[in-house]
Amino acid sequence: MTVVASYLYRDGTRAEEVPLVAKPFDAGQNEFAWIGLSSPTERELEALKAMFGLHPLAIEDALAGKQVPKIDVYGDQLFVVVKTAHLEGDRIAYGEICVFVGKGHLVSVRHGPSRSHRSLREHLERSPQLLAHGPDYVLHGIVDSVVDGYLPMVETIEDRVLELEKHILSSFLDPEQIRRIFRMRRQVLKFQRVLGPMGEVVGKLTHLDLPCVNVNARPFFGDVHDHVRRVESLVGGLREIMTSVFEASSLLEQQRQGAITRQLASWAAILAVPTAIAGIYGMNFRNMPELKAEYGYYVVLGVIALMCAVLYRRFRKSGWL
Length: 321
Fold this sequence. Notes:
Blueprint lengths: L2 E8 L2 E5 L13 E8 L3 H11 L3 H9 L5 E5 L2 E12 L2 E12 L2 E7 L6 H8 L2 H4 L3 H14 L1 H19 L6 H33 L10 H64 L14 H23 L3
Parallel strand pairs: 3-7
Antiparallel strand pairs: 1-2, 1-3, 4-5, 5-6, 6-7
């Protein structure tokens, strides 16, 4: 069953259940219907279309479930699409909520892994003075709950990136950790493409004169807009942290390679001395000086040892070894 809840509210209090029937629904004064569906069928949406006069294009978008955050105005009705997001491991999973708002009704359609509105409904029902204002306050509650879900997700990703940043100060990142940072970076970039349209949606609800949105409800949407901007700021900072992790890891790797190169060069210079001397005395010439010297062999060994010691000490002092 895709109908999660379907109730009529009178003066902010739940009055009765509203059945889905393909005939017009008329709400009385101080009444509105709030119907929640999850991945509905085409038949159920057609029934809602007959009940509330929903626009065919909005019905088509709600049935597809693959929209970007947006607001469409159809006469005296609003069609709002918002994106939910939560973490599954290091991957951000997205859901979608389509909301039809009209005079005397609000219909929410959920697709994908989005949170149930049960807790939101119970919270609003405990505040009948707010619920009595009508569907626009329910719309605020839905959008606010979606945006509030962004913050802990971004903070969790930030904690994981900071843990990797702390790790590189003591040791180098292994290939799997580097791939993990790249995966999280792609997820953050994709999430930024969702945040932009979400900010536009909430901004329109805050500043524009829209049907079914009372002027008194705009400050509530303004508060949600502030939350979106805060999340955008955190995501921007998170991208900078990821960039710094990449740069720090690259610099440390270059430093390590430079140290290894200097060590190899130092040992090559030290070993060049005995190699050169041995190479000279290894030539097969008959007339070479000091070939018959009694202590020539020991003198040559001493010269090799002395020069190697001097070079080793100088390289050691310069920090190359």
